[in-house]
Amino acid sequence: MEYPRLRPIEAFPVEIERSKRIFIRDPLNYAKEPLIVSYPTYFIMSHFDGTHSLLDIQEAFARQFGQILFRDQLCDIITQLDEHYYLDSERFARLQQEIVDAFRRAPIRDMAHADTCYASQPEAFTAQFTGFFTAADGPGLPRCDTLRHPPVRGIIAPHIDLRVGGVCYAWAYKELAECCDAELFLLLGTSHYGTGNLFVSTRKDYNTPLGPVKTDQEFLSALQRAYDGDLFADELVHRTEHSLEFQTLFLQYLFGGKREFRIVPILVSSFHPMILSRTSPRQDPQVAAFLQALKETIAQDGRKVCFIAGVDFAHVGQKFGDPGPLTREFLDWVAAEDRKLIDALENIDPEAFFAHIAGEEDRRRICGFAPMYTFLHLVEAGTGRLLKYDRSLDPATQSSVSFASLAFYG
Q1: In the predicted model, is pLDDT for residue 146 greater than 80?
Q2: Which pLDDT score, from 0 to 100, does residue 195 have?
Q3: Cα 93 vs. chain centroid, distance in angstroms?
Q4: Where in the chain are the domains?
Q5: Average pLDDT rounded to a whole number, residues 160-184
Q6: Contact 395, 13 (CB under 8 A)
Q7: Distances in Å between the alpha carbon of 243 and those of 111, 139, 367?
Q8: Do β-strands 184-190 and 262-268 pair in parallel, antiparallel, or remain unpaired?
Q9: For residue 206, how many other CB atoms are within 10 A of its CB?
Q10: Which residues pair with 383 in a beta bridge?
Q11: Ramachandran angles phi, psi of 114, nearest 5°
Q12: Dihedral, CA atoms, 84, 85, 88, 93, nearest 10 degrees?
């Protein structure tokens, strides 16, 4: 490879045994193993853009570090990255095609994060999820024998790693279990790997340790007829996306084998250009067309519907590009700004929600913005209520992610 090209990756600084390194992983999960590299190696990799020759990279390294980078050393780095499928190469292209073909043939969307974020075996899985409800700061196990009122029309739940936020999920799902008798759950999740199509679905059922959660084929067909865009053109993004996978796990834990239900899984890509232009998403033709098509399809279907948004809030700290270590004052500011967004959510005010994020140019990187905005335009509820707010703190990367559970009644 005279002009090596690195595939899209996630890279962020970490501190390991008081030594700073760069952690690298593949967000699309083609490369299974993450890598930890030194700063000089990362500098070399940053030139793998398909336009710099090996000689160009050697010269850039010498200018930066005042040392010679021998060709053999450079080729060793290239070989190792290619062996781990981090380079855009013929080797990677073969692997990618195999994975894509297998996904398209499969009738079911298999578990992508089992045995990492949650247990794959039924007994261990059930114990893990029961623990989310019964933890000291959990809501307690739901009572599903009698439905409480007013009914829940929708919930906002996290999509953060279950090992971090499982208890927060439980607060939303306890309320759903006790106050919702919907037959159809419309799942709106963040698509972390954006596509040209803002709304992406799949006809595949979602597998879980307790068996598959069924996707409603007829509803999706009706929605596609009503919508001008192609809901399935970028279906591959569902393969590893966790924002909806984690919601199906809670639904199956609560209702599997107890009551009939179906899901409509929809990933929502970034609305960031609308933030930069200060243009409300409802004015975007693709967003407006989707909202209208989904409302019409729900009305024609006639079943009881509940919306579930799998989202997180602020992403701050060095891992996400902020300078310096986290401070208490900064984290308090993040929480106060999150509270303003939660107020707009509780008031079911999508334009106030948008205006606040656009006003700060999404400084806190609200990765659930697009599905939450869509949720607010669709949920037919009178009021919302915050159930639990929490955040993760990662000292190794000096970063934090905030998340919350809310329920919407009507």
Answers
A1: no
A2: 78
A3: 25
A4: 10-101, 108-409
A5: 97
A6: no
A7: 12, 22, 11
A8: parallel
A9: 24
A10: 409
A11: -70, 145
A12: 150
10 pairs with which residues across the strands?
Answer: 25
Task: Look up tokens 């929480």; give the residue.
Answer: 335
Question: In the beta sheet, which residues pair with residue 201?
Answer: 266
- Closest residue by Cα to residue 399 from 17, 35, 116, 13: 13
Confidence of residue 81 (pLDDT cuts 50, 70, 90): very high
Is residue 271 exposed (0-12), middle (13-18) or buried (19+ Cβ within 10 Å)? buried
Task: For tokens 């927060």, name the residue.
Answer: 168
Give, for 8, the enclosing helix (H) or strand (E).
none
Name the one residue in this structure whose structure tokens are 């247990």. Answer: 119
pLDDT at residue 28, rounded to an integer: 85
Mean per-residue pLDDT, 353-370: 96
For the packed helices 162-179 and 122-134, what is the interaxial angle rounded to 10 degrees?
80
Render pLDDT for 215-271 as a digit per residue (tens, 0 to 9).
Answer: 999 999 999 999 999 999 999 999 999 999 999 999 999 999 999 999 999 999 999
Please name the helix (run of DSSP H) or strand (run of DSSP E) that holds residue 400, with its range, or none.
strand 399-409
**What number of residues does the chain have?**
410
What are the distances in angstroms from CA 75 to CA 2, 62, 112, 138?
10, 16, 33, 52
Residue-level pLDDT at 312: 98
Cis bond upstream, residue 142 (ω within 30): no
Cα 270 to Cα 151, 192, 308, 373, 403, distances in angstroms:
31, 8, 18, 11, 18
Handedness of CA 279, 244, 223, 297 (dihedral sign): negative
> May I ask the CATH architecture of the domain 108-409?
3-Layer(aba) Sandwich (3.40)
Confidence band (pLDDT; 50, 70, 90) for 168?
very high
For residue 159, the 8-state DSSP code is -
Calpha distance 357→81 (Å, rounded): 38
Quick: pLDDT tens for 5-41. Answer: 999 999 988 877 778 899 999 988 899 899 999 999 9
Say which DSSP state 302 is in.
-
Tell me the CA distances in angstroms from 233 to 104, 198, 220, one per residue in order.
12, 11, 14
Give yes or no for a contact between 244 and 167, defined as CB atoms under 8 angstroms apart. Answer: no
d(CA 386, CA 372): 14
Residues 6 or more apart in contact with residue 311 via CB below 8 angstroms = 156, 157, 158, 159, 189, 190, 243, 367, 368, 371, 372, 403
Report the pLDDT value the prediction gives residue 58, as an integer from 0 to 100: 97
